[in-house]
Specification:
alpha+beta, Creatine Amidinohydrolase, Chain A, domain 1, Creatine Amidinohydrolase, 6-stranded mixed beta sheet, 4-stranded mixed beta sheet, binds glycine, binds manganese (II) ion
């Protein structure tokens, strides 16, 4: 059993993560007196809190966790090591946050740039009256979350293994007359039965609908000759996996084979190119070049991949926007695809851990073209 406060297997503690955040926030030029963290993913990362609203107030030498009565008992189990301030019923949350900051002598309060506008305005209004200035300070926790620690990598491995097992489990449904909805439901049921949640809305599309990269499952029945694409992930112990496979019902046509092998080549050459120091956008460009060689680049309308972590799109990854060099410890998806309107599409998605010398696959479901001719 993994303790909420200290992962026994790896020795990583939430307090240690908070102390790394303090180093980043309070040691720069003109630091704030305190930082207020409100993003639920960041609260989970820094404290283990699984509720849907709360705030962590950190000064260089003290800390408070603020939440409402609905979490009064839960927070004492999950965040036992941070002094608790319970927001009284019928009081606005940002008033309690500002009061708590003021009691700790805070004059300049840093908030995450992702703080919703309404929240920021509320904090500023109350802060003005209390003599506490409120200033967005960027996304320091997301920066820490880019590179995963040992505890996170262990959980991401488990989430990836569950995605593989789920793909194995649903293969018996790849046959004529089964509906897209049947497949999506079976994926979700299996994930839930194994103690996980779907990491995002499960995709199951078939036939021409495989040309919809994020199509929603319908009651369409599979037919011989269809492509079927499933894209799903497990959120297990707080961490996400993300797996896509495209298969064929019956035997693949020559054109289906051509598309599939082009995407597979883009996948494999991208994975071979991933290593620390490389910029994500260079790997994305490589995948596009491979598809260009097959005359298919125009049908690849999304980025090559993203980070995985507490959320399924966990920040920088492998797209034209990702200019920062990759680092060992990042966990990424690699998911080239081609989508030909009126014909169909193929996407193959793997999860990888960036290592010192390259990358390691976390997902192991087969990537060869699977033809289901029962
Ligand atoms: N379906 C979400 C993703 O693969 O990124
Ligand atoms: Mn996916
Ligand atoms: Mn993905």
């Amino acid at each position: 059993m993994v303790s909420q406060h200290q992962d026994q297997a790896t020795g990583v503690s939430y307090a240690e993560r908070r102390s790394r955040l303090r180093q980043v926030v309070f040691e720069g030029r003109k630091p704030p007196d305190a930082v207020l963290i409100t993003s639920t993913a960041n609260l989970y990362y820094l404290t283990g809190f699984t509720g849907s609203f709360g705030a962590l107030l950190l000064t260089p030498d003290t800390e408070r966790f603020i939440t409402g009565g609905i979490y009064a008992t839960q927070v004492q189990n999950e965040v036992a090591d941070v002094p608790l301030v319970l927001n009284p019923t019928l009081k606005e949350f940002h008033e309690t946050a500002i009061d708590t900051a003021k009691e700790l002598g805070v004059r300049l309060l840093g908030v995450e740039s992702s703080t919703p506008v309404a929240g920021l305005q509320g904090l500023r209004k109350v802060g003005r009256r209390a003599g506490v200035r409120v200033k967005p300070i960027g996304a320091p926790v997301e920066k820490l979350r880019r590179v995963k620690d040992a505890c996170e990598i262990a959980r991401l491995r488990d989430a990836a293994a569950l995605a593989d097992a789920t793909f194995g489990h649903i293969q018996r449904l790849f046959q004529p007359e089964v509906t897209e909805w049947d497949i999506a439901m079976e994926i979700d049921f299996y994930l839930r039965r194994q103690g996980a949640y779907p990491a995002f809305e499960t995709i199951a599309v078939s036939g021409e609908r495989t040309a919809l990269p994020h199509g929603k499952p319908t009651e369409r029945r599979l037919q011989r000759g269809d492509f079927v694409t499933v894209d799903f992930g497990a959120k297990l112990n707080g961490y996400c996996s993300d797996l896509t496979r495209t298969v064929v019902i019956g035997r693949a046509s020559a054109e289906q084979r051509r598309l599939y092998h082009a995407v597979l080549e883009a996948l494999q050459r991208s994975i071979d190119a991933i290593k620390p120091g490389k910029r994500g956008k260079r790997i994305d460009a490589l995948a596009r070049r491979v598809l260009e060689e097959h005359g298919l680049a125009e049908y690849f309308g999304h980025g090559l991949g993203h980070s995985l972590g507490i959320v399924v799109h966990d920040g920088t990854g492998l797209s034209f926007r990702d200019k920062q060099p990759l680092e060992a410890g990042m966990v990424l998806t690699v998911e080239p695809g081609v989508y030909v309107p009126g014909f169909g599409g193929v996407r193959i998605e793997q999860d990888v851990l960036v290592t010192e010398s390259g990358c390691e696959l976390l997902t192991h479901a087969p990537v060869e073209l699977l033809e289901f001719d029962w």
